[in-house]
Amino acid sequence: MLTRYYSLCSQLCGFIFDEHIAFFDQIHAFCKSCYYHIRELHRIRPYFYFKTASTIATSIVYSKLDYFNSLYYNIPQSKIKRLQNIQNHLARIVTKTPKSYNATPCS
Prior knowledge:
The protein is mainly α.
């Protein structure tokens, strides 16, 4: 089963290319990794000032998102929404905003 999986997609420089170049596997793995780091940041967030938490968030999540930014060009809107949800969740953690708070993105 494992050999079949790697025949369908390959990994290059940390980016997973699937057979249709749709990046579904890549975005799934990226979201899973980001949410893990966001949960860990949420646990230690009370001990940091805003600037420190912002720097940690930038170095952990935004740097990964920026690294693959050009490869995410022209992906389906549903996948862009998943990436946007990561950014929104991370911003709520850094600013200590409750989940129930309704914030509109800047345009």
